[in-house]
Amino acid sequence: MKKQIMAAGIAGLLALGMAGCGGQGAGGGDSTDEATTDSTSTTGSDKSDITIGVAMPTQTSTRWIADGNAVKEGLEALGYSVDLQYAGDDIPTQTQQVDQMITKGDDLLILASIDGTALGSQLDAAAAAGIPVISYDRLIRDSEHVDFYVSFDNYKVGVAQATSLLFGLGLTDKEGNKAADAPSGPLNIELFAGSADDNNAGFFFNGAMDTLKPFIDDGTLVVKSGQTEFAQVATLRWEQAAAQARMENLLSANYGGNGEGLAGVLSPFDGISRGVITALQSVGMGDTIADGLPIVTGQDAEIASVTFIDKGIQFSTIFKDTRLLADQAVVAAGAMLAGEEPEANDTTTYDNGVKVVPSYLLPVVTVNKDDIQAELIDSGYYTADEVASGQAD
Ligand code: GAL
């Protein structure tokens, strides 16, 4: 009963807030809004009968385990109950999990989709039941019922990946300024993108290609396979094995089977990077970059890849602090449940095909071997032992 009253109240307040505030940050600035509850306060009311459904895509990648744990802990610290589900990267499993969250009467949903276009009917049902929806890291597309989006600056992730590739190839410094002693090339590279049904994959690829284009246009970089279109280089479900298989094919079709002449690989995600590296190592290109392994980029600072970076096997990753992302989701959820509009810092970029979704975007950090201590160990993201062993607790 209390849930129904809450839900109706939230729906009304959200409708008011969205009509009235044009998507700008909230925090109780609207004087006509009667709900003045501090979204982060746990005082006064018992929140344990408010349940937040959290749907994560998969546990095969350590980043999503970290995300799920951090969101759960953050919400529980505020007193909410949490219904955390993983879908094994299977779309029907995820739609079923979200259906169940709605029928059980969860009060708010935080969803990291597998296929960004597959949750439309679930979002319709959530809206009909007055359940607000936060899209987590991956934007849910083609639905007007996405109330808020928390993520990183995904275009900048792509820029950072390409910049790191250029740096690794000696063409620029770490910040992307042309290097004085740059090799004249041509240098051969290959490109990988993420899963085409994940809205982020296009942002990463566009950011990367805008950055690489001048070097491709002037002949410094050559994509020897000729595969430069997103559709040609995408990796369904971001799958490591699929990336390894495609890299093996690229090596045999374009690099004499032993990788000769391949200088670098743009990889958008650490799982893909490790698949690519396995393929490169297995044709004898070397065990480490110092031995002749090409420059391979990444993303997510997954522990296995951080260890590879530490050992000079993978060149870089893009660190997206899942603790900060989880915090933002928790803060936004608290605000929405208090009838407030969560604070956005971007209200123009993320058009999901139906509406521009107000977003809170976090910054990203490029991590090379030299940055592991400061960015990942000193910040408490991993311990030195975890980096040494390649396994996080
Ligand atoms: C994306 C996400 C990346 C990476 C990838 C594969 O949506 O933004 O950080 O995790 O999925 O899981």
Give structural notes.
There is one protein chain. This protein has helices spanning 2-21, 62-77, 91-104, 120-128, 154-168, 199-217, 230-233, 240-254, 270-282, 303-310, 322-337, 372-377, 384-389, and strands at residues 51-56, 81-86, 108-111, 133-136, 148-152, 187-191, 221-223, 262-266, 295-296, 317-319, 359-362, 365-367. It has 13 helices and twelve strands. Helix content is 41%, strand content 13%. The protein has 393 residues and is of the alpha/beta class. Strand 6 (187-191), helix 6 and strand 7 form a beta-alpha-beta unit. Helix 2 runs parallel beside helix 11 (322-337) and helix 8 (240-254) crosses helix 9 (270-282). It has two domains: 2-146 and 322-362, Response regulator (Rossmann fold), CATH 3.40.50.2300; 154-319 and 385-389, Rossmann fold, CATH 3.40.50.2300. The strands form three sheets. A six-stranded parallel β-sheet has the order 2-1-3-4-5-11, sandwiched between helices. Strands 7-6-8-9 form a four-stranded parallel β-sheet, sandwiched between helices. Bound molecules: beta-D-galactopyranose.
Could you tell me the CATH topology label of the largest domain. Answer: Rossmann fold
What is the typical, i.e. mean, pLDDT? 90
Tell me the strand order in the biggest sheet: 2-1-3-4-5-11
What hetero molecules are in the model?
A: beta-D-galactopyranose
The percentage helix is 40-55%
CATH superfamily of the largest domain: Response regulator
Report on the biggest sheet.
6 strands, parallel
Described by the principal axes of the CA atoms, the overall outline is elongated
Looking at the overall shape, the CATH architecture of the largest domain is: 3-Layer(aba) Sandwich
Low-confidence stretches: 1-44
Domain module count: 2
How many DSSP H or I helices?
13
Task: Report the count of strand segments.
Answer: 12
Task: Estimate what percentage of residues fall within beta strands.
Answer: 5-15%
**What is the distance, rounded to the nearest whole angstrom, between the alpha carbons of the first and last residues?**
40 Å
Strand-and-helix sequence, N→C?
A: HEHEHEHEEHEHEHHEHEHEHEEHH
Q: Name the structural class.
A: alpha/beta
* CATH top level label of the largest domain: Alpha Beta
Round the Cα radius of gyration to an integer and report it: 22 Å
